[in-house]
Amino acid sequence: xxxxQISGQIVDxxxxxxxxxxxxxxxxxxxxxxxxxxxKRGLKVHTQVLLPVVYDGVEIDAGYRLDLLVEDAVIVELKxxxxxxxxxxxxxxxxxxxxxxxxxxxxxxxxxxxxxxxxRMVNKL
Length: 125
Hints:
The protein is of the alpha+beta class. It is 38% helix and 28% strand. It has three helices and seven strands. Strands 1-4-5-6-7 form a five-stranded mixed β-sheet, sandwiched between helices. α1 packs across α2. The radius of gyration is 14 Å and the shape is globular.
């Protein structure tokens, strides 16, 4: 499956979850439900994936975790915040660089219409 197809499946699943649950829940609730919905669609999903920082040739566990890694290719960073800030976008870009993944989705469930809470980001490597 190509990256655009995977991303499309993630967005579609996120919209389904948001339609069912609405805004106002904790990020962790959306994470579990989105992972479940993606697995129902036959996608491989890992949650809370450790992302070490490589510094001076050494892998260091700095406490970074990917919310979701779908098909070992697309990072999904979930939020449930009033407003997505530039630091949230910078966080996803950093995760893309550290992991070597090319595509990431920043999804904020704390919006009235989920289409307004989705940002696709690309690591230009």
